[in-house]
Amino acid sequence: MTKSINHITLDHKSFEKIFKEYFILLCAFANKYIHDTDEAKDIVHQVYMNLWEKRNEIKMSGSIRSYLYTSVHNRCLNYIRDHKKFIYDDYPDSKENLNPFIENSDYLEVEELRTHIYKALYELPEGCRKIFTLSRYDGKKYKEIAQELGISIKTVETQMSKALKHMKSKLIKYITYISLLIGLLINFIK
């Protein structure tokens, strides 16, 4: 089965919509590779400028989202190569180091999901984010968190409840994908 190749049609209005929808997510995605917010923004701007300038020439076999993420990913790799900041093979998020069941398109979706999770996490107030991170990323119990931060267990419970509600509201559209991914991981481990 061959993928169909489509020309994209962009006017000012549709370009602006695509820019607003993906710019922040693409910047966060790029920043994970190069660890420099200003350079990440520059890379994303370059991708958008290229998209606009070559809008009548670009042919794509997937979605605009895939095109943008792939373009940013490739430009980040070029930046890393050109600036020799990292050795890509040693970078933990490189494609080669991902589990073998994740295909290229899945890789982009996983990266986009990860970006949305980070974005939702950083929208939380600092104290709430700290409690959530200690619980979910560091695996600490509420009692340990309360002792470490010098607050009551009830405060930890309240803040975790707020954090979980926020994360759920921001990530609800990804629940199906997360469930499928967890199912694949469980089957892969067995």
Query: Rg, please?
Result: 20 Å
The general outline is elongated
Mean of all residue-level pLDDT scores = 76
Q: How many domain units?
A: 2
Number of helices: 8
Instruction: Please report the distance between the alpha carbons of the first and last residues.
Output: 31 Å
Give the helices and strands, then pairings:
Elements: E1 6-7, H1 12-34, H2 37-53, E2 59-60, H3 64-83, H4 104-122, H5 126-136, H6 142-149, H7 153-171, H8 175-189
Antiparallel strand pairs: 1-2
Helix pairs in contact: 1-2, 1-3, 1-4, 2-3, 4-7, 5-7, 6-7
Describe the structure.
This protein has helices spanning about 10-35, 35-55, 65-85, 105-120, 125-135, 140-150, 155-170, 175-190; strands at about 5, 60. Helix 1 (about 10-35) packs antiparallel against helix 2, helix 1 crosses helix 3 (about 65-85) and helix 1 (about 10-35) crosses helix 4 (about 105-120). By secondary structure, the chain is an all-alpha fold. A two-stranded antiparallel sheet has the order 1-2. The two termini are about 30 Å apart. The protein folds into two domains: about 5-90, Rna Polymerase Sigma Factor, Chain: A, CATH 1.10.1740; about 125-190, Arc Repressor Mutant, subunit A. The protein is built from eight helices and two strands.
Short description:
With 190 residues, the chain is an all-alpha fold. The protein has two domains: 6-90, RNA polymerase sigma factor, region 2, helix turn helix motif (Rna Polymerase Sigma Factor, Chain: A, Orthogonal Bundle); 123-189, Winged helix-like DNA-binding domain superfamily/Winged helix DNA-binding domain (Arc Repressor Mutant, subunit A). The chain has eight helices and two strands; from the N terminus they run E-H-H-E-H-H-H-H-H-H.
